Write the structure tokens for this entry.
Amino acid sequence: MLSWPGSGAKRDLDLFVDFNVNDKFLCSVGFYLPQCQGVQLNYEGGNSSRDEASETATLNTIGNYKYLVYVGRFLSKEKLHPPGIEGTQARLDVYVKSFPLGPLLSLDIPFESSAKEPHRYWAALCVDASLSFGKVAVLNQISAGKPSVELCYDEAIYS
């Protein structure tokens, strides 16, 4: 779940889950494609208003895939050069149905003040479900360019 706890901020980011289906095509679940292969994106209150306080990506059906969970700052017509993603105070919480005590993992957006250009993306984590749902790798990296699901194919990140 992507949220802005206690900040009162307007929703200025989008949550995405990318994965390759049978090495043939890329599913990029997000604002424009809210469902693909059992992964579904939901907005608080059931509508797609940009003023909502949270977004949730649900993996209803776990496929034999490697999933990249990341966040992107969307561009608006009013701001052609938006500020970096760091100032949004966003947080990503990971919940698992079999763990009812709260989030299994919480990540705050990292901050980097020495950036030459604004960061628009936050690669949060990878989930390797190719053998089981037990492998999660925290990336927690910000970048100016969109992250690639290929990050999740590096086996070294899961150790």
Remarks:
- Residues 2-158 form one domain.
- The two ends are 24 Å apart (CA to CA).
- The first strand starts at residue 2 and ends at 3.
- The CA atoms of residues 91 and 108 lie 4 Å apart.
